[in-house]
Specification:
- By secondary structure, the chain is α+β, with helices and mostly antiparallel strands.
- It folds into two domains: 1-47; 48-181, no CATH class.
- Helix content is 49%, strand content 15%.
């Protein structure tokens, strides 16, 4: 065998191994996703909430720099459990810990956030990111100032009050954007 053929064979084998690695990572990711969906089904999160999400992403990056995962209180009291979940989210989703738990929230920051507030893995982002901000079953979700999303009660959809809420939200976003430019 000539050296040229050997190099070609090595390239083919390395590409084949990379493809198999990609398939393995993709399969693991899909298993995690299916597990997430099944857990949401078991918890009854598929039923309708009182609020409906409106708006679109304003690309401020705040939700990526300061996200919080809610843990049960009994877990937060155990440092080993907190450390496990910090390592888990760092390994599985590249969410880096940015401090100790604050109440029941585990503060994290996404390692895939790029300059310009864009996601480095947007087509493959975690379920948490795809569904942000998640509609809560138990009240209104709190958002970062300047976020492009807002919530309206399901009963008020299509009413004058919804239009007022939208205009108020847009005015707050413009004010926040101006404050950030100064």
């Amino acid at each position: 065998m000539s050296t040229q053929q050997t190099l070609t064979l090595r390239r083919c084998l390395s590409r084949l191994l990379l493809f198999e690695l990609w398939v393995l990572v993709f399969t693991c990711h899909m298993a995690v996703y299916a597990g997430d969906r099944f857990a949401w089904f078991l918890l009854g999160r598929e039923r309708k909430s009182r609020y409906v999400r409106r708006g679109a992403c304003a690309r401020t990056g705040l939700c990526c720099r300061t996200l919080g995962i809610e843990l049960p209180e009994s877990w937060v009291r155990r440092p080993r459990v907190v450390a496990f979940f910090q390592r888990w989210y760092a390994l599985v989703h590249n969410f880096q810990p940015i401090g100790p738990p604050q109440g029941r929230l585990l503060p994290l920051s996404c390692g895939y956030l790029r300059d310009g507030h864009t996601c480095g893995i947007y087509p493959f982002r975690p379920k948490l990111c795809r569904e942000y901000p998640q509609v809560s079953l138990f009240g209104k979700v709190e958002l970062h100032r300047g976020c492009g999303y807002w919530f309206v009660e399901r009963a008020k959809l299509g009413t004058f009050e919804e239009r007022l809420l939208r205009e108020q939200h847009e005015a707050e976003r413009r004010e926040y954007a101006r404050a950030g430019e100064d």
